[in-house]
Amino acid sequence: MRKGIFVTFCLLLILGFIGPTSDAGAAAYFHDVSTTHRAAKEINYLAQGKIVQGSLSGYFYPSKYVTRAEAAAIIGRTLNFNGTQRATSFKDVGKGNFASGYIQEAAEKNIINGYKDGTFRPEQLVTRGEMALLINRAYSFGGNTTSQAIHQLMDKGIAQGFTNGTFGQDQPIIRADFAVFVARAINPKFRINYELTAIQQATVNASALNVRQGPSTNFDTVAVLKKGQKVDVLHIVGSWAYVRASGIEGFVHTAYLSGISSSNPTNQLLQYLKTQTIIIDPGHGAHDPGAVANGLKEKDINLSVALKVKSLFQDTGFNIALTRESDVFVSLSDRVNFAKKMNGNVFVSIHTNAGGGTGTETYYYSAAATNPYVEKSKKLAQCIQKRLVEAWNAADRGVKKGNLHVLRENNMPAVLVELGFIDRKEDAAKLGSSYWQGKAAKAIYLGILDYYASESGLNFQPLYDRVQ
Ligand SMILES: [Zn+2]
């Protein structure tokens, strides 16, 4: 055992992993990051946690630009991803890529995405805007667009932007700056004028719990907590919690805390939502108007309601995609192919009825042979139908089985709603009204939330609150 450690130590010396120490005796890990370097604190902090690495000869290259592969590795290490090199789902990232394990896990967790052509482009430089999004996704700060993500970083004391008031979102980011942002994101002590408040309380359930400077056992222990001690949880990084207890602040593993979910409820919900893609399918389009009556065309109503549903889901954390966003023709098979390509998790087709009835009905496909999600489809149909009937005070024609292409050929919970009858005066008055279309869109939004709340067991209150 001891011999093994000694051999490892010598090997590390030979390989140059153990860097020089400065005159002052403070840990310095890299020849080119002196203790007076503006980012020395943050770089050395991340080096202590083995989150950033230098060259074999002990250089960090603080002014070099960060590639996408390096960014995935650095972020992945903060979250204790298994970095073992392996095959990935990207055609340009082989098992031989040093970051392949991190890239694959980060992609699976929707922290960093590939490109439509199936590449990841590991050598492409990361811009400051991309960095902001990456950090938001990795630590669930909630920003979904680049500008929201930048706003979150400013808000949390992680970024300040340039003195000219811009953030330089299109500029590539250098390693020193990336290290500063990541250190501030994971450890609030590095942030600028930022006071954390407790998000929940927890109790230590291990007999002696090491409190560490960072979110892994690579970091030094700063204190030890006793079993039964109460702590305030201030911040979560992966499976580690940043806690405060009687003057002590630092990271502990969440496995040793009772009364804590692995992340705070809001974070947990956001983590979940970003894995979910909702496909909205406005029926018909272009030369195919669908049903036509009372001066209305079905294709226009379907699209208008779909766009309203989209805007309700915008910025919730869910991914949302429409099979068409304008008056164009999309074949039934292309609608299904699009949903599959987008890795949709639910599919909602919006239509308008005709044929002399009145009221609302919702369809699902009931034979598992082609679309296995029969029970989930039925549940989704029931949730949306209930909300639509309430919203429009419409005749409830119920949830029905239907052998329809977009339901049958799909591979996700899929439903088709018929909002009302275009050839019935009373229904048409609502179908053609922006106000009532808005109510239908909100009902579809709420129906999808009802479905998800029951499927996931998570608290969707923040999303319900948005439309109250
Ligand atoms: Zn139709």
UniProtKB/TrEMBL annotation:
Biological process according to GO: cell wall organization; peptidoglycan catabolic process
Cross-referenced InterPro entries: MurNAc-LAA_cat (IPR002508), N-acetylmuramoyl_amidase_3 (IPR050695), SH3-like_bac-type (IPR003646), SLH_dom (IPR001119)
Keywords for this protein: Cell wall biogenesis/degradation, Hydrolase, Signal
GO cellular component: outer membrane-bounded periplasmic space
UniProt signal peptide: 1-26
UniProt-recorded Gene Ontology molecular function terms: N-acetylmuramoyl-L-alanine amidase activity
Hydrolase found in the keyword field: yes
Classification via PROSITE patterns: SH3B, SLH
Domain SLH intervals: 26-85, 86-149
Gene3D superfamilies: SH3 Domains, Zn-dependent exopeptidases
Top-level division of the source organism's lineage: Bacteria
SH3b domain segment(s): 199-261
Protein name, per record: N-acetylmuramoyl-L-alanine amidase
Organism listed in the record: Parageobacillus thermantarcticus
